[in-house]
Design brief:
This protein is of the alpha/beta class. The chain has a single domain, classed as Rossmann fold, CATH 3.40.50.1820. It contains twelve helices and eight strands. Strands 1-2-4-3-5-6-7-8 form an eight-stranded mixed β-sheet, with helices on both faces. Helix 3 links the parallel strand 5 and strand 6.
């Protein structure tokens, strides 16, 4: 835990949010959003690289990582979009650069389209954005979350470990896998794991996906070519819906591009964030 700490706390409408920043205050701001079932920890290498030229804001969504996990907590996409908007106001960021992965992609899109959050540019990494989404396992757990919550701890540990590991194409380092699984163990982690899946309703992306044509900011869509959670075909479909978007496939990477190809992803993001309008959109 000591290698990645979020020192600040913000009281949001969905509970306490742990957050932190890297880089010098006043530098061009970048906000990183994680997905499910992960946390800001997956951004550690990218965040440290971007912090050489940016002030980088990282946060764990309510119900994830180091942030609050509680019974009855609203951790849905709808709630997270509101929390992100609250955080931007708390940080005083009017038009930051935003980079969002997986579920965080939907959060950033909802905040922009429904809550008026303004970004200078948006980079989406294997985002949850278009129906249908969710692996067969994800849907099964969502339909029977109350049953899965009652698994013995050892079986729950094995299930979460296998599920998280499947997000990587070449496979995760055992220590990284341990760190990603850790927040979901014990009390309140085990219940929180199934809670966030149970609340992951596709209606929250259905609500905005027909509005992607309204996005006028520079948009980069990165996608691991070996992603088995959300196939790269969804990336092509997404850039076809966003007028300013271009697709950047990442070879040899699965869904967790940050772990599978951190150097390649960081290089692409640095290039894009330095000059989002440098190259015309291509598909």
């Amino acid at each position: 835990m000591s290698e990645w700490q979020l020192a600040e706390t913000f009281r949001s409408t969905s509970g306490d949010v742990r957050w932190g920043s890297l880089g010098q205050p006043g530098q061009d701001p970048v906000v990183l959003l994680h997905g499910t079932p992960f946390s800001s920890y997956i951004w550690r290498a990218v965040a440290r690289s971007l912090a050489r030229r940016h002030q980088v804001f990282v946060w764990d969504m309510p119900g994830y990582g180091l942030s609050e996990m509680s019974v009855g907590q609203d951790v849905s996409l709808a709630a997270q979009g509101k929390v992100f908007t609250e955080l931007l106001a708390h940080w005083g960021l009017e038009e930051p650069l935003v980079v969002a992965h997986d579920f965080g992609g939907a959060v950033s899109l909802r905040a922009h389209l429904l809550h008026g959050a303004r970004y200078r540019a948006l980079a989406l990494v294997d985002p949850v954005a278009l129906a249908p989404w969710g692996t067969s396992f994800f849907r099964l757990v969502g339909e029977h979350s109350e049953v899965f919550e009652q698994l013995p701890p050892a079986l729950h540990h094995a299930l979460v470990r296998e599920y998280v590991g499947s997000a990587s194409s070449p496979g995760l380092h055992p220590a990284v896998l341990d760190r990603l699984v850790l927040p979901w163990l014990g009390d309140p982690g085990q219940a929180a794991f199934y809670r966030q899946i149970a609340q992951a309703d596709q209606l929250h992306t259905d609500e905005v996906q027909d509005r992607y044509g309204e996005i006028g900011i520079p948009t980069l869509v990165c996608w691991g070519q070996d992603d088995t959670w959300i196939p790269v075909a969804k990336g092509h479909e997404l850039v076809a819906r966003i007028p300013s978007a271009r697709l950047q496939p990442i070879a040899g990477a699965g869904h967790l591009v940050q772990e599978d190809a951190p150097a390649e992803l960081t290089a692409v993001l640095i290039d894009f964030l330095q000059n989002p309008r440098q190259r015309p959109a291509t598909r």
